[in-house]
Amino acid sequence: MIHNTISSRPSRTTGLAVAAIFLLFVGLGVFAYFSEKSQSAATAETGVTLLNVSYDATRELYCEINHAFSRDWQEKTGERIVVRMSNGGSGSQAQAVIGGLPADVVTLALSLDIDDIAEHTDLLPRNWKTRLPNNSAPYTSTLAFLVRKGNPKQIRDWHDLVRPDVRVMTPDPKTSGVARWTYLALWGYALRRELGSDFASLLSDPRQADNVQAAQTKAREFVAAVYRNVPVLDESAREATNHFIRQRIGDVLINWENEILLGGREFDRERLEIIVPPVSILTEPVIALVDGNVDRRGTRPVAETYLEFLYSEIGQDIIGRNFYRPAVSERAQIKYRDQFPAIEMFTVDAVFGSWSAAYRTHFTDGGTFDQIFRPRS
């Protein structure tokens, strides 16, 4: 389903309301997309039409980015442009592009998802990540907790999630991008707790092999204990958020930091509050040009400029304003640093080797997640 988000900023409540509709269409494998005929009609009327295929949490960010870029492009070239959006689960969006959704650009939650497009199609090269600064990640984020007002369960850190009186809301890491980040954050936190603050450097040290193996066993037990406290394993972050806020299921919701900070006012009305754990994972959403589609449609120059706009001072300022952490602009980093807690963060590459390695170990059928998770009867 394609959502056009260029006219106005959708409210968080609206986003939650449409989540069920989106999931129905994804579950059926149905993706609405622009036909060549409708694209040609839009181009004749507006100049150029781009399609950005993205993940759920970026709706508000790209609503503002698209307005600013369209204005900037028209001022510089005199040409009108419309950027249309398709939002959904990051992995589902990658599969949609593989299946023919005509994205000009993809802006997804995991580098693994764009790797899948490169592996299964000839739409973009496998070295796509090297083509833009900061490994094609113009912004970063991390994870945060949402708890009931007053934090009645006194949830402050990851270790609180294993207590038997705490019910944890997080989606299924087999279907949700943020859930995969959450799973790896839990695992990395447990390793750090066992090995100390320099744990990442010890993981590949042969002299520490016995200690590392013992720590990996503890991490497995810790992550399994957290998932025993998950009452409902939803398919997406939006669905888990809906259950937590609207149906009041669970004591703590784990979600993107930017998603939770952006909804701060609404969460206050819902009698909720935000907790950012002191140690967490650095999430690195990534972007890429879909060469096969832009060359076929003749949109390469504008699509390349669109992605570069995210690294500009204007783009980085919008990124910070939408509660993502600007990756390359010192000015934006200084301007928005007070809205982000200063926490210790580790990366997927440092702890797990790469996203591909993490996926093979933990998320493939029969992998570690399947081994430790037992659905509630």
What does this structure look like?
There is one protein chain. Helix content is 49%, strand content 14%. The protein has 377 residues and is of the alpha/beta class. The chain has two domains: 12-139 and 283-339, D-Maltodextrin-Binding Protein, domain 2; 143-281 and 347-372, D-Maltodextrin-Binding Protein, domain 2 (3-Layer(aba) Sandwich), CATH 3.40.190.10. The strands form four sheets. The protein has a four-stranded mixed sheet, sandwiched between helices. It has a four-stranded mixed sheet with strand order 6-7-5-8. It has a two-stranded antiparallel ribbon with strand order 4-11. Helix 3 (59-77) packs antiparallel against helix 15 (313-321), helix 4 runs parallel beside helix 5 and helix 7 (177-195) crosses helix 9 (209-228). The protein is globular, with a radius of gyration of 21 Å.
**Reading side by side through the largest sheet, how are the strands ordered?**
2-1-3-10
Gross geometry: globular
Mean residue pLDDT: 87
| CATH superfamily annotation of the largest domain | Periplasmic binding protein-like II
Number of domains: 2
User: Helix amount, in percent?
Assistant: 40-55%
Largest sheet: 4 strands, mixed
CATH class descriptor name of the largest domain? Alpha Beta
The stretches of 5 or more residues where confidence is low (pLDDT under 50) are 1-44
Q: Got a strand count?
A: 12
What is the CATH third-level topology name of the largest domain? D-Maltodextrin-Binding Protein, domain 2
CA distance, first residue to last residue: 33 Å
Structural class estimated from helices and strands: alpha/beta
Computed CA radius of gyration, to the nearest angstrom: 21 Å
DSSP strand content: 5-15%
From the structure provided, what is the oligomeric state, counting identical versus distinct chains? single chain
The assigned CATH architecture of the largest domain is 3-Layer(aba) Sandwich
Number of helices: 19
